[in-house]
Structures are given as C-alpha cells and as structure tokens.
Task: structure prediction
Amino acid sequence: MTTQNIPMPGSMDPMEQDFRPTPVPGDLTPYLIDTHIWTDEMLHQAGIPIYDTPFVTVGGGIGSFVTVDYLRICGVPASSLTVLTNLDVPWSSYEYLTRVSQIPRRERLRSDSASTPDNIWGFPSYAVREAFSAKSVKDFFSPLWNVLTEPILADYYTPKAGHAFESMEREYHRIGYAQCVRKGQVRMVRRRYGGGYFTILTPPAGAAPTRRIAYRSQFVHVAVGYPGLKLLPDLQRYRETHRDPSKVVNAYEPHEHVYEQLSRRPGTVMIRGGGIVASRVLQRLIDDRDRLGLQTRVLHVFRTYVTGSHGPSIFMRRKGGDGWAYQGFNYPKSVWGGQLKAKVRKLEGAERAEEYKLMGGTNTPVRKSWQEQLKRGRAQGWYQTLIGEIAELVPGPAQTVVAHVKAAQGYIQAQADFVIDCTGLEADIREHRLLADLLDHSGAGRNPSGRLDVERTFELRGTRSEPGRLYASGSATLGGYFPGVDTFLGLQIAAQEIADDLAALGFCARLGVGRSTKQWWLWARHRPI
Amino acid sequence: MVPTLNGRIQTRIALLAVVGGLWTLLITPLLPDGAPLSASYRATFLVLLLVIVLGVLWELLYHFLQQFRWEKDWPTFFGLLTAINEGLLIWILIAVGVGPDVPGGSFLLHFISVWILTWLVANGPMRVPFIHWRFQGGRLI
Result:
C-alpha cells in the first residue's frame, strides 16, 4: 500500500505519463529524460519550442509572488520575469489549506503583524493598517494596543486571513504580476550546455500546439510549496479497508460535513495532534457548540502531553501546559532576524539539525479565547484528553469509529463519531516530481534535514550552470542556514537574499537606502511599477 | 526587529545620534529651562550623550535578560518600559551633580520626547530606508 497525498490546488498529477502511447508533437524523449545537461539542438530535435526569458520562477504561490515583488522593486521589468504555475492566484493554495483547516478569511492567521507578503518593508504593519481602516474608536485603538503590549499583556497580534489576501491582491495588480504568469505544470528544470537552464512546462491540454514548452533562462527559482501532505497510514488503512472516507478525515481535507452532522445530532469528535490546526478545529467545534447550543463532546488524543515549561536549560525553556507546547508563531521569533537567525546561519551538518530539533516540536499559540473554551470544556466534562498513540482505527457500533490507542498503561479503546487528524505529515521531497528530477539530474542534494540543500543565498547547491543560478525557497528547503523558510516573512527573507545575489551578478539594482525609500513611497501611494 | 547584541548597540547609537540629535536641535530652544541657548544646547546634548553611552551598558543587561526568553525576542513594550530605569539613572546622576545641570521639567520633556520618537522610528519607519536592518538583528553595518 502506498500512502496517499492529500490533494491541493496546483499539485502535480503523479500519474501523468512522460510519453503518450501515440507520439504527440513536441514531447519529451527518452534521450532528453536520461541526459543531465541539454543542448539547444536536443530540444529542436524533439520539436519542443524554446522561449527565452531572463528569469523563471516555478510554483507561482506566495514564494514566487514575494520573489517577483522583490525583483520588480529592484527594477526588473515584468517582461523579464516568467512565473510558471498551475495556480490561478499566488494565494490559491495557501487560502485553500487555511480555509479547510478552519481559518476562513474572517479569522486570524498565525502570523506576525510585520510579516506582510504585499509589502517587503513590513511597514506599515497589518496592525497599523487595521487601525487606520477602523470604523470606530475602539477598533482603532484595539489593534494598536494589542501590538504594543504583545505578548506581555495581550496575545500576539495576528492579521485576519482576508486582510493578508486582499492586500496581496492589491500588490499583485500594482506590480503587474499577471503579465508574468504562464499557466501549466512544470515537469523539470535541467541545466543547459553553454549556461543557464531549461524549464519544461506542460501547458493545459489544447493551449499550445506542442505537449511541452521549454523556457530558456539564465536564472531559475523553484518555490513549489509542500512536496505533498500525506494521510497517516492508519487513517488510510481505515479508509481503504472499510471504504469510508467520511468519518476519518485529515484537517487539511474539506470536512465541513463533520460540523454539519454535529449540528443536526449530538456526537463525539476525536481530535489528534497538538498544533495550531488542532487549536483551530477545536475552536470551530466549540464555537458551533456555543452558537447553536450543541452537545458535541471532544476527545483529544495527545501523543506527547506537555504538562508545563519544558526545555534543556533555563535559557531554553518553552512554555506549555494541559498537553500543549506554547509558542507565538511556528518558530521562536528570533529566527526571522535575531539571535537564532544569526546562530543557525553559522551552523553546519548535524549541529544545525540538532538546533532545528531543539526549537522544533509541535506547538500552538496561547490565545485567551482558546484557553477559556478548553477550561470550560474540562470543567463541564465535554472536553477530555487521552495520552497515547492511535494504532488502529476500526468501525464501531452505530456508525462510530473505534480507535485502539496505545497508551502508557496498555491499549485503550476510544469511540467517536468522527476522527479529525490534525497532524501534518509532509511528504519526502522525492515525491514531488520536479524536486526528484532536480535530485536525479541537476546536481541538487539534501540538507541535514533531508530537504533541498541551499546556500545562504538560497542558491540550490550543486546546480550551478555558469553564468546562471538556480535558487529554491519555501518548505522544500527547510533545514538550511535560515530556519523560517516556510513562513510569510521567511519567504521574503529568502527573496531578499536572492535579490541581493542577483544584484551582485548585475541582474537587478541593489536595494539601498535611496531606492528602498523611493520604492516604498511608490508602494504607499499604490503607484504601479 | 528582534535584536542581537551587536544590532542593539548599533541601533541605539545610530537612532539616538541621528533622530535624537535632530530632535534635540529642534526642541532645545523650546525647553522651559530659562538658561541661555548655548548652555541649554550643552546640557541637552550632554543628556543625549549620557543616554547613548550608558545605553550601551544597559543593552548588555537587556541582552542578558533576553536569554531567559524562549523566543530570544525583545517585546515592543519593553522598549518603552526601559525608559523608566534609564531615565531614573540619568536623573540620579544629574541630582548628584555628575550629569549636566538641567531643571527637572526640561529634562523630562527632552528625555521622554527623544525616547518616544526614537522608539517609534525603530518600530516601523526605520525599515523603509534600511530594508536589511530587521533581518540582521538591528545591525546597520
């Protein structure tokens, strides 16, 4: 049995054939597939048309967006940048994942006020913008007070998802992003004999006379997001054996039917996981319980139950309690520019992997409203926790699911109407076809955490094709010299490193005091560039 | 900006010298100290110099305290609260005659306005001209 990936917008079809049984014009050939470095002539022979562009970014999500934004601000014209993507807009995939995991546009993300993918300066921050668009005095002062006193007197300020998407949309139009986009699925990036790279795009059926198109560029940037999100083996076993996809779900799958059924008749939900997604799903269940007067019961299974502050020394102690490890954002805040960023930048190999382990582990933010809800649930008995690991899921009586939980005291059976798995199991990078191809043919390697090995400049180590450069950022590069790569601000930090490297190579202007200030002024007045 | 020790010190010196210096130039003539302008300027710039020099020492303490925080961050609010201890120390120095001779009202007006202004600049506008600054722990060079 192979584990399944959870479908996401723009994700690659793993079953797509490299060659059609009946040859079609301009397709890959076995010779091309097997050859690491391609010549222009090889593509001519295969009938694949070649388009020239200085810079290609593959993925088209928020990673591509902030990189294009940075380069546009550094003076690169839109006509010199090509975004190859399956996504309709850069935030499609992110918005899909946040929405199904219970962060619709009106709810707040887990992101810092100054992590603004629409604004490379982070000024004005989301909190300030929210204040200045307020319609009442209270709504004006509330975000400002929040951001002023966080995290001492108030929880961390976090922006509404809708605020992030709407502001990205404004910037999308300002920089002429749509002009750069070419739709399709990228199959591979290969080095070119004579320098630079070829990026092979499979356009949507019928959109081009050939099956493949090649983009010849000096620079390539790969930001394809998660290699894939996987179902845990026991979940998949349950679904396949019992042909029941509805009672056992992953939180990153659409699962509105769970909440709908609970609103019609009382039930028990088993939650698995101790991260932000579990927190959000719990909030939805309890909000519905309060709003609709439901009798929903929650059984929360923790594999690791955190009872209090934890860590190896007094200088490395993270708060925790009631099962959860608490942390404002998905990394300690100083990875985005403080001590931890400076420290990890200098670490290599096992030392770096160890540092990642120390700051890692599943965690969730402390939010007063969540604390209140769970406290009430514990007091009234409808929220209970169980410590252990779910070993097997089997159908129970009256359309329920029974979990065999391996606990410290032996096996325990627990029954629920639904199981919502809130753990995120990320696929290996090799399961993404484009990334596997980079490993097999383009010289890319793995870092100590097993993801793509990038330099401090985010150049993909081992893939250089002078005078070209191949960069990668985002989740696929986790484990590198900069830890927060899979976050809004992390993507911008990567974009800054890439832009600095490209400026040193003469591809764009360096963002010094004058240009930065001038460009910010253009941004502030929403002037197109 | 989440500071490193080096970044703290650089930001402290640069912001107080430039933003604090310009502000001191503007505000000194308006202070109710009743002294000749040259004496007022000498006093206010001496206070500013004290905030910078003693501040570098304070930053060492703040950096040490930061080590007890899991996030290794320095909340925005702390940036305001530390005006109290730093202001008190300078006032004590003035009171014992080590610092410049400034009346209490003028000192408060000058010190608090410099503090708030530099704090505001550090928490936003600074990122506009210095786009690398926040990602390198507050280092400028």
Chain B has one domain: 5-136. Chain B is about 65% helix and 0% strand. The CA atoms of residues 83 and 115 of chain B lie 7 Å apart.
